[in-house]
Amino acid sequence: MDNNVNKEIIKGKRPSSKKVILSVVGVICGLTLLFYGIILIANKVKNGRADPEPNKYTFDYANYDENIFEDAVYMGYDRGVTYTNGNLTVTVDREHLDDVSEAYRETVLFMFDYIDAMINGDAQKFNSMYAASFFKDGRTPRERFTQQKIYAANIVAVDNWYDDSESSAVTYYNIGIDYMIKNNNGTLRDDMGSDAVRRKYLTIRKDADGVFAITAESYFSSLEENRK
Questions:
Q1: Angle at 198 between CA 195 and CA 202, to 5 degrees
Q2: Dihedral pair phi/psi, residue 5, rounded to 5°
């Protein structure tokens, strides 16, 4: 008997170079999409533009003809403005700013204009308070919004700094602003419900001519991110 056993050597098929290239390209494309997806989400959070959850809030009917100053209940609310700096919180108005540190007085007056524009439904004035550079990355000026039944407004002094990197020095202020809206209809703030508080932080620039403009806004106070 022949003890020699014929052994067959089965060679596995080597994948073609074309398939290897396609696999590598697919992995690279997948990682690229994942990377840019993370960047997009991070930028939305950074700029305070993360979209609210769908159907999270129920808004009132938007009546553009309503005169909110005829709402007796709203007029009975605390419609004053407070100013907070550290542990100090005081009630302020345009004529009484003695308790506001001198460095922030002009900025607080600017914020009074900001609040008044919202209350009066003055979209033109509201838009004019933002720097032209703010309206980018999908941001657009407000076409219109109703008068806003704002109450219990609070202006928070966070920080200020000088930037002399350009030909003329400018001053930046990081200001928190929170308030509640009776019967919020979502035409201005669609990121919170009625009688709720969601603070925003504004970066406000004062140029060499003394002109103030909002350059950034966020739900987070991050000075380094806002210094642009």
A1: 135
A2: -105, 125
Q: What's the predicted TM-score (pTM) here?
A: 0.73
- The single residue listed with the structure tokens 């302020």 is 92
CATH 2.60.40, applies to 53-226? no
Q: Which residues pair with 85 in a beta bridge?
A: 88
Q: Among residues of the chain, what percentage have pLDDT more than 90? A: 64
Q: Label residue 21 by pLDDT band (50, 70, 90).
A: low
Cα angle 129, 88, 217 (rounded to 5 degrees) comes to 25
The residue among 169 and 225 whose pLDDT is bigger is 169
Instruction: Identify the pLDDT of residue 173.
Output: 96
Cα-based distances in Å from 145 to 116, 155, 214: 13, 22, 19
Q: Where are the domains of the chain?
A: 15-46, 53-226
Q: How far apart are CA 160 and CA 89, in angstroms?
A: 18
